[in-house]
Amino acid sequence: MSRTLSPPSPAAPAAAGAPARRARPPLGRAWIAAFFLLPALILLGALVVYPIVWSAIRSLFGPDGFTDFVGLSNYTGVFTDHQTLVALKNNAIWVVVAPVVATGLGLIFAVLTERIRWGTAFKLVVFMPMAISMLAAGIIFRLVYDQDPGKGVANAVATGVHDTFFKASAYPGAHPRVAGAGSGTLAGPVGGPYTSKPVRPGSGPAALALVGVQPSTLTDATQAASPSGCPQGALCGTVWLDFQPGGGTPGKIDPGEKSLAGVRVEAVRDGHVVATATAAKDGTFALPASRIGAAPLQLRLPATNFTAQYAGVNWLGPTLVTWSIIGAYVWMWTGFAMVLIAAGLAGIPRELLEAARVDGAREWQVFRRITVPLLAPVLGVVLVTLVINVLKIFDLVYVIAPGASQQDANVLALQLYLSSFGGGNDQGTGSALAVLLLALVAPAMFLNIKRFRKEKSR
């Protein structure tokens, strides 16, 4: 009797709710993946892992190398050294200011450029500094911050604005020749005001002689002259440059001596200005009798006559050098923040924004309560990335800060270089600074990695 063979029964289905097993890739594919990853792993180990391990070990030894074991002394020295403390303070300023300003400006530019036709062109201009290396940007801003307004753009703007409201004097640095000789001799502190001895109206012309005038300010000056036809009871005089090449009599107007036109003269009695006059083209002036009276008074040349020309702001001086370099950094990295934030803006559903506007929300409310909260993940990534970047800042500080104020702009990366190779020749301290810098960067780096993984898992 024949027997019918039944087909094999199917495997029992997996229990409900049991996690499905992932199929393992074939062994050949795993080897192929390892083969392609191996070069990257070798480079990562040679360029990242090995330097970190070597620096950590080297930080336990002194300047003489691995024969001079000092333990944790280098780390103790780092936190007691004045230059390193200045570097830590400046790094703190960098971390607080630069990422926040760059991210804030990037957010503003990204939002505003969505509303203008030429937004793409504006984004291109703002992003262009990212194509410039740190070294090139440092050279550019070293010129921008030059003290000479003829070279430095920043001081050209500063002096232009200042001179619009506060005019420089025509005779900066002018001063009396000798004090205490004669009734017309002037005396006073350097830079003015210069005051004469008491004079009586109607007693004769007052001689207000000055020296120290730059020849370049006298191109249009004429021969100084003694006042003629002085009104009855008035006080007249001359303001001139009392200098004659090859000779001349001090306190007397000699042929060839130039007038100082435009100098303001004040008549002072009992500490109060009773009359003023301005020297004419030939240097003469007259104070009317109706204003000065008959009692003795003093003639005063205010300090405004001798104010030096505004030289601009000392951008690279000890006070402003760190802030000036931060300005250069913001100029470079605002475009980076703007592009990433603009990409995040493109992913925001427009329906939410339009619904808020229909409900009566103003643009500021839409921006603050909808746009910014939805952009929070992108803003966090940009901010943390810039924090990591500024902790390692070196190029801009090294190039922009002049030698006189380099220590005032010092940061940890620069101090690491100076300690190891820039004259300190102490690689033990430099390695300790490298480990410290790694310890400061690591939390921000891990936070960024955690955020990336969180975004990927959504």
Automatic annotation (TrEMBL):
One family name in Pfam for this protein: BPD_transp_1
Keyword Cell inner membrane: no
Membership in a protein family: Belongs to the binding-protein-dependent transport system permease family.
InterPro entries: MetI-like, MetI-like_sf, UgpAE/MalFG_permease
Compartment(s): Cell membrane
Cellular-component GO terms for this entry: plasma membrane
Domain of life according to the entry: Bacteria
Biased composition (Low complexity): 12-21
Regions crossing the membrane: 30-53, 92-112, 124-145, 328-349, 370-391, 430-449
PROSITE patterns: ABC_TM1
Taxonomic lineage of the native organism: Bacteria, Bacillati, Actinomycetota, Actinomycetes, Kitasatosporales
Region (Disordered): 1-21
Domain ABC transmembrane type-1, residue spans: 88-448
Keyword hit for Cell membrane: yes
GO terms, biological process: transmembrane transport
Name recorded for this polypeptide: Sugar ABC transporter permease
Record organism: Streptomyces sporangiiformans
Entry keywords, A to Z: Cell membrane, Membrane, Transmembrane, Transmembrane helix, Transport
Coiled coil: none
Bilayer topology annotation: Multi-pass membrane protein
Signal peptide: none
